Amino acid sequence: MFQTRTITNQLTFFQKIRSFDFILLFCIFIIGIISCYSMYSTDGGELLYHSKSHIVRFLVFFVMMIFLSFLNIKFWHATGYLFYIIILGFLIWASFYGVTASGSQRWISLYFINLQPSELMKIAIIVCFAKYYHRTHISDVNSFKNLLLPILILILPIVLVVSQPDLGTSILIALSGLVVLWLAGLNIKYFIYSTLTFVISMPFVIAFLKPYQKLRILTFFNPDKDPLGAGYQIIQSKIAIGSGGLTGKGFLKGTQSYLDFLPEKHTDFIFTLFSEEYGFVGSLFLLILYAIMIFRILRIGSYTRSYFAKLYCFSFAAAIFIYIAVNMSMVLGLLPIVGSPLPIMSYGGSSMLATMIGLSIVMSANIYGKQVIS
Amino acid sequence: MISGGDTSFRKLNTINRRMFIISAAKVVVFTGIVARLFSLQINENKKYLTLSDKNRLREWKLPPERGEFLDFYGNTVAGNLKVYQLHVVPEQVEDFKYLMVRLKDILQLDDKKFSKIIKKKNKQKPWETLVISENLSWDQFSKVNFYLHELGGAKPVLSVARNYPYKENFTHVLGYVAQASESDLINSEIIKKNHVPGLRVGKIGLEKAYENDLIGSNGIQRYEVNAYGKRINQIDHLEGKKGKNLRLTIDTEVQKLANELLADKSGSISVMDIYTGDIIAMHSSPSFDPNLFLYGISHKDWQDIRENPLKPLINKTVAGLYSPGSTIKPLVALSALENDVISPRFTVRCTGKMEMYGQTYHCWKKKGHGYMNLRNAIKQSCDTYFYEAARKLGVDRLNKTGLKFGLGEKVLGKTFIDEKEGLVPSTQWKKDNLGLGWVLGETLITGIGQGYIQTTPLQLCLMTAQLANGGYKIYPRIRVEKDQDTAEQIKNKMAQEAIKKEEENLKIKPIINARNFLKTDQKEHTPLYRNPENIKFVLEAMWGSTNEVMGTSFGSRIDDKKYQFAGKTGTAQVKRITEKHRELELKAKDVPYEERDHALYVAFGPYKNPRYALSIIVEHGGSGSTTAAPMAKKLFKLIIDRHEEREKIIKQNFTI
Q1: C-alpha span between B215 and B44 (Å, rounded)
Q2: Of A124, B26, B47, B383, which residue has the fewest beta carbons closer than 10 angstroms?
Q3: B219 in the same domain as B102
Q4: Which residues in chain A have their CB less than 8 angstroms from residue B232's CB?
Q5: Domain finish residue from B218, B248, B278
Q6: pLDDT of residue B515
Q7: Mutate to test the interface with A, among B1, B12, B22 (most CBs of A within 10 A)
Q8: Would the CB atoms of A310 and B7 count as touching at under 8 Å?
Q9: Do B229 and B375 reside in the same domain of the chain?
Q10: How do residues B486-497 score in pLDDT, each as one tens digit?
Q11: Collapsing DSSP states into helix, strand and coil, what is residue A314?
């Protein structure tokens, strides 16, 4: 045991490079390239604001991810709670001094970037929980005492994000946290009970709300920019995807997007644009890339020795999958529209930053896979 | 580590198991997403492709180019004129207010017009074309072009508009076009189909009658539009089809002469080919310039037309109802002869008036004509003779003859929506419509074309034509179409019919009900007589009326055999003449305009080999012989002069 630790500690730089998961890296890079092309298309085939800043962000954050990968997994374990507390601080800051845009106060202004802390919270909550359950005995996981803190950890950011208001992100944070709880071994009955309680209490809660509050809840499900009545976005998205056909309309030829029928095409509906231009074949290709990415993360998780890293990787894989599934189901008309970006593809610095940090922790778990955290 | 071995093993066991459960769930969801993609993109691709095209493609219909009207010789009488218009697309204008103020100055728009344009602008989308002026004068157009560099956003364009080069000459024949109204759209499928804002459609006359042929079909411009409806680029442009050009039977020269002759008068002139039924001219006076209606007539012009006491809006040729007066006498004579009521030798002594049941019936000649036979009675238009003839004939038999010769029925069917049927009275008619019994006195005045009997000028023309061609039914037409019979063909048919009739007469068959054979659709040139000699007699008497001393239109005769015509004058009373007036012997000049008699004249020519018939009516024009008959002289000169040219065109088999 002592020997292995010394070995990993003494990994040379080239050994570290060699132990990179290049398939994962390659997948991320290809998805990044695709996202740049799609962003270029949203700008109508010109290198304008969105495409330029997206390309820059992707490259900067991709390089940053590689550098962060060299951080020992122990660092993330050590700073797990701190990471969460800092992001929570940012969230609180945002709720007081945040930048408001399109009716929601979600951003904080750092000097070089407008940061959306709720996006980072998606990762922070996983790291935080992974650390928490790393030391918890399996027999203690389901004890009431050991459940209080995780619930608090989960509820705080959700309340903050809902009050921004940003239903989509808060749901994704909740799901990210719940996935960790599930993987940590929380009894299934808790999930069933809480779901039932939630469903049953819904009508009562709504009944006690004031009309304007009800309206606010409705606007959660029916986001602002909706010029032609409810369902416009989803109808246009389905038309765009459906009209793509087998091989799509071709690069820069997605009429739905460049004639502005598609709403939010940079962010939530980027997959719609991609699917319109590249059709079923292209969409399947992108899905396979995501699938490989998730598979590689799971593989790293299963090879890694520390419980922290394993729990993190499995949870992160599940979270990434949830983001992808929620976003795609949404644009395919299977779920109501809630703001949820598609990892890497969607425009948005904070989302990109969060995804890259999350991936760098996975990379780190891979490089330092033999590392044991006591 | 070792003490916790069991725990960590259980922990790992749990996490691995649950990871697999999640992975299985992932596969299920992943499959679901792929299935959804497949159903949208592969199964329902067509549906969504259509929806996407529906989203992005908008069609703009272009106004169709209207077919033209040509006269018999191929001259355009209603064409399409290139007009200069000024368009502005507000979106492309930097400073709209400034531009409008400049344009107002340059085009000298009055405040009313200016505010109208502003109102229109506020109603439209900013990228829709705003028409500042639909018809710029050349002066305005060149001025705009001169200042164009300062008028960013203003576009002088060339467009097409209806144009009537002969102005008031064809107004009542062609009618006019104006913007399609709501009722036009409701009543006509084809207008609805081809409608674009600002489309001009026929409102009356032939423009309306032949709308379906004239309208053509829309050109279509297909544009790609964005989500806000703005045109991005043009995808394709389908040329529309121009409407059919229609050729009329009308001779513009004759039409123009008719217009000249009736200048400043109220009345009508119709000229017809007695075989083919071709309408050579039909003019109603006063007329107006139909070009005024194209861009919305100004209030003043409209007021002038509407309030003119001579009623220029009425197409008097088909919609004016007149007592035929003495022009009916040839028909009364024919009816009497056909029914064997009188013979040409039947004589009446005219003393200037006739007493009947205490009522006095006057002849136009106060002194009386003395002893009159039928020929002289027609020639000198003796009223007393025709009172007696009508009395013997009875109104019902006259009614039958009248109907046979085309009175009491629309001449051109549905062509002119405003055409009137007129009236040939009968005892039955009076009972049905007025609920009163027929009075003998009414028969007497019907015999001289007064009383209930009412005819349109075109009906009188047709009646004369059908007498002049030897008494055969003809079918008036105003549009030249393929496979129409020529005059020669029709003459042959008539000759065959005549032989058939002769054979029939020998077999002595009952006379067929006149109404019945009027209703047959087949274009048979049925003889309208029983004995062709009767027709010949009447025509000869009409010749006498024009070409013999004492004849009522002797003064208007042409001795040259080439032009010689035969006719019958008529003077229709508008107001019952009181005894007092009769004694005063008022001249036309002394009577107020509205109470003066209508002057009528019907004629055919050339007498030796008749080809054309005409009818002339001058409202309140005084007597037929002084006002109407001289017009016929001028008309026949022109008509017969132009006959050869017309024949040439027919021989060339000129078609459009």
Answers
A1: 40
A2: B47
A3: yes
A4: 259
A5: B248
A6: 47
A7: B22
A8: no
A9: no
A10: 888 899 999 988
A11: helix
